[in-house]
Amino acid sequence: MAHPDDAEFFCAGTLIRLTELGWEVHIISAAPGDCGSISHTPWEIGGIRTEEARKAAELIGATYHCLGENDGYIVFDKSSIRKTIDMFRMIAPSLVITHPRQDYMMDHEMTSLLARSASFLYAAPNASPIPIREGACVPYLYYCDPPEAIDNSGNRVKPTTYIDITGQFDKKTEMLIQHESQREWLRAHHGTDEYLDTMRRMAALRGEEIGIAQAEAFIQHRGHSYPHDDILAELLNNSNPEI
């Protein structure tokens, strides 16, 4: 994801369900959140936010990583692609969740491109000097919802996959609460004091669409060479909407 709290907003419920099945989960942010403050220096707030992300990940037994890019300056270039490939090389993910291809801010869109690029290439022997881990392959790739589940034209995004997170919602909320520094920032920059309520509305919106309390929604990337079976739905015993 782009920033330290993005996973908690958009896909933490699903990550929790995967850890409950015994999956090894890694949360990666491209940037440390160094612009997310009106009172701290970039270095101060970056340290605060990455520590908040680490604590949130620890709540579910996950591991947090940061690529060290800068807020607002995440780009799809050789350096950032290399960082992402090297990170994937060390982890060897079999399933990747990232931002949607179209989102309200470019940091998210660029991170989506980085995740897509690295997911396709990281297992190629010559892609990185870092040794290939056993099992490295082109992974399942999913795009999470944009905020309010609308694209840049204001149209509702139609998912391929819904995941019931009703039983995991309290833990998802606890993870987001770890990002204390962002309440002040969102009030000042976004004009909202609804940090948790925004997340709750999103989960309720997607849940209502399939007749449950809370859900997270995704679009699966099914391009050439990527797996086409919906592993999230199969693993987590959910039914997909008709698409």
Topology:
Elements: H1 6-10, H2 12-20, E1 26-29, H3 42-58, E2 63-66, H4 78-91, E3 95-98, H5 106-121, E4 140-144, E5 161-164, H6 169-177, H7 181-189, H8 195-209, E6 215-220, H9 231-236
Parallel strand pairs: 1-2, 3-4
Antiparallel strand pairs: 4-6, 5-6
Helix pairs in contact: 4-5
Briefly summarize what is shown.
The chain is of the alpha/beta class.
Assembly state (oligomeric): single chain
CATH superfamily: LmbE-like
Rg estimate, integer Å: 17 Å
The percentage of residues in β strands lies in 5-15%
Q: Would you state the CATH class? A: Alpha Beta
Q: Average the pLDDT over all residues and give the rounded result.
A: 92
Write out the strand line-up for the largest beta sheet, numbering strands in chain order. Answer: 3-4-6-5
Identify the CATH architecture: 3-Layer(aba) Sandwich
Number of helices in the DSSP assignment = 9
Principal-axis shape = globular
How would you characterize the largest beta sheet?
Answer: 4 strands, mixed
Number of folding domains?
A: 1
Q: Which ranges are low-confidence, i.e. pLDDT below 50, for 5 or more consecutive residues?
A: 239-243
The helix-and-strand class reads: alpha/beta
Instruction: Kindly report how far apart the N and C termini lie.
Output: 26 Å
- What's the number of extended β-strand segments? 6
- Helix/strand order: HHEHEHEHEEHHHEH
Q: How much helical structure, as a percent, in the residues?
A: 40-55%
Which fold name corresponds to the CATH topology?
A: Rossmann fold
